[in-house]
Amino acid sequence: MLDLSYNNIIGNLEGPLPWLHDGLEFLDLSNNFISGPLPKLLPTLIIYLSLSNNSISGSIPSSICEPTNLEVLDLSANHLSGELPRCWLQGSSLQLMDLSNNNITGEIPPSMGSLTWLYSLDLSNNNFYGELPSELKYCKNLVFLNLGNNNFSRKIPIWIGEKLLNLIYLQLRSNMFDGNIPPQLAQLTFLQVLDLSDNKLSGSIPRSFGNFTGMTIYSILNDNYEFSLELDSDTLIYMDSLSLVMKGNSYTYSKILGQVTTMDLSGNNLSGVIPEEIGALRHLSNLNFSGNHLVGLIPEKIGDMLSLESLDLSSNKLSGAIPQSLSKLTFLDYLNLSYNNLSGRIPSGSQLDRLDDPSIYIGNAYLCGRPTSKNCSGDTAAPNSTSNYANGSETSMWWLYLGMGVGFVVGFWGV
């Protein structure tokens, strides 16, 4: 084992490097200042290789496929470019591949479907394009799949929901996927994070999305999500990280990733109504449908989502009244209903009363009540109706007495 991570090492990995001998199983040079290309030859017995957060450039050599014992490959946050090698072989031991935050381009090679032991695949923040190869459906052990911030296109494949049944984290955000969202995704019963935001998806939200068991009931995975690797007598822990938009801001989750449950479909061209079945997701903490063309009412059953901390339905075409059931969401600390066609009195309640920012409701011309400055009809008259009646009665009595006095004087004078 050789661990020189988090130092100030400079230089490159070119030329003869005697310490890269065949007996080396664990090599961690992450978080340094290493530059230049990747070495063309790697130790044949290497199991764990991390060169992340350096300045390594050039393409990934085909020799990366040769160490058949390799289980963890982390080359994230470098300056790698070119296309992925197509040499991935059946029988590879690779379980975790992180190539995120580089400049890698091209399509995902179909040979990656031979990585049947793959547990985590992160290709986010690169320049990949094209459609997802159907061969990836053979990676049935995938738990973590992050392909966000690329240029993938075509439809989201149906086989993701039908074949990758162990998925817990699925992020496809900021690509160019189009067409309808496949309802088959709801077959991913363990799914806790579904992020399809900022694509070109159209059609309606599938009603089957109320069936995600991982967002409905509490799971033991919520407490402890991590990837462990046995190396002789040592147990090595590797934690995936994921950047998500929560409560209006972007956060990166790693250690507490297992506690995150989110559904983000924002920034698409979705239409139709919000399905009532969404209310069954009682363990969901973040729901974001903003920036679409959704119509109809906000379902009353959203009030059943008792774990909800963040709800964003802004910039749609929703109409009708805001359901009073939102006041039951005691954990809700971020709400955005702006720029819709909502109307009526804004409901009150212990939690809603704390969300007193008027921008939550801006862009809804027919909403009234606190925290907006617009009063609802009857708000001024109703509290003072008793006093107004008393004032009116008192005025009538004065007129009565005055009339009686004038009548008496005129009558007496006339007689």
Short description:
With 415 residues, the protein is mainly β. 8% of the residues lie in helices and 26% in strands.
Spell out the key features of this protein.
415 residues; 13-stranded parallel sheet; 8% helix; 26% strand; elongated
CATH architecture: Alpha-Beta Horseshoe
- Poorly predicted segments: 380-396
Taking all Cα atoms into account, the compactness measure Rg is 31 Å
Shape: elongated
- The helix content, as a percent range, equals under 10%
Percent strand equals 25-35%
CATH superfamily: Ribonuclease Inhibitor
Main sheet properties: 13 strands, parallel
Explain what you see.
This protein has one domain: Leucine-rich repeat, LRR (right-handed beta-alpha superhelix), CATH 3.80.10. β19 and β20 (234-238) form a beta hairpin. It has two helices and 31 strands. The protein is 8% helix and 26% strand. The N and C termini lie far apart (127 Å). The strands form six sheets. Strands 1-3-5-7-9-11-13-15-17-23-25-27-29 form a 13-stranded parallel sheet, with no helix packed on it. The protein has a six-stranded parallel sheet with strand order 10-12-14-16-18-24, with no helix packed on it. Strands 2-4-6-8 form a four-stranded parallel sheet, with no helix packed on it. The chain is mainly beta and 415 residues long.
Question: How are the SSEs placed, and which strands pair?
Answer:
Elements: E1 2-3, E2 10-12, E3 26-28, E4 33-36, E5 48-50, E6 55-58, E7 72-74, E8 79-80, E9 96-98, E10 105-106, E11 120-122, E12 127-130, E13 144-146, E14 151-155, H1 159-163, E15 169-171, E16 176-180, E17 193-195, E18 200-203, E19 227-231, E20 234-238, E21 242-246, E22 249-253, E23 262-264, E24 269-270, E25 286-288, E26 295-296, E27 310-312, E28 317-320, E29 334-336, E30 341-345, E31 366-368, H2 385-414
Parallel strand pairs: 1-3, 2-4, 3-5, 4-6, 5-7, 6-8, 7-9, 9-11, 10-12, 11-13, 12-14, 13-15, 14-16, 15-17, 16-18, 17-23, 18-24, 23-25, 25-27, 26-28, 27-29, 28-30, 30-31
Antiparallel strand pairs: 19-20, 21-22
